[in-house]
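Issue 218. Parser rejects a valid record. Input:
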Amino acid sequence: MRRYGKHTDEDDIRSRPNRKGNRPRTHTRPKHEDAVEGMVLTVDRGRLTCLVDDRIVLAMKARELGRKAAVVGDRVSIVGDLTGKKDTLARIVRIEERTSVLRRTADDDDPYERVIVANADQLAIVTALADPEPRPRLIDRCLVAAFDAGLEPLLVMTKSDLASPDKLLELYGHLDIPYVVTSREELESGDAVGRVREQLDGRITAFVGHSGVGKTTLVNALVPQDRRRLTGHVNAVTGRGRHTTTSALALPLSGDAGWVVDTPGLRSFGLHHVDPSRVIHAFPDLEPGTEGCPRACSHDEPDCALDQWVADGHADPARLYSLRRMLATRERTDGD
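Output the parser choked on:
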């Protein structure tokens, strides 16, 4: 083995070459003081479509961001080619602090969170009154996620030409949740668009709903300058619709009056990320009744005051059943 004395010549010392031919890693991160702010409109296989001023710019995430991912609605700092010309690619170097994050999990026992949209301030829960039938428990789950994320909920009921909204209004109409009822004829004529727009102006609103409820049709009517793919058919056997939106997309309302975020149709809405103690906040008709509950009440035990609260007519029994079903699912998850 070769040995070196005190007075070695540095040219005589062998060094291991960098076979990759790239620069060595460093913990020093560039400041990118010349970065320009933009908004993420959609994400597709690692490529992010952003709005910078009035230009659409395609970008990718910079390496220094590590595992941190940008999602639709994020305010980001971008460097590189910002012309928006074909075959150009910019870099996202910073993700600004978020004001809100709407999340879901695939199921209640799935710990992996999926961020639906960032920086929204309203969640429009779209449900059909028929074809397919409404799913109140999914609506309840969306309400839990909205309240947990700090978003104001909006209930949008479609296809009122096929069924009456009275049954759903009995469950949700007295909860001080804004709602809009629409029909196919009103959407085609534009009569319903104005009523929905009143609830959207000045806000960033994420639209969620299971497949076939007419969510994308409604978004198309609200943002006619950016038509989405035609809606799919609803399966006559299962009552489920074909997914017509495959990725979330933010679309501006005319007159800079706000943003609409169209999201893929939901099959489920897991709430693994929500603390069970906060679930009750999504049931404002039941929450006052918990004042008589014993300490640390699970709301599913003999001494729970909610049974008497419902028996006295303060809330619908179906709402209490939905609350307990969600809490029971979470308790099984926590015990695994």
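Fixed in the parser; the record now loads. The chain has seven helices and 13 strands.
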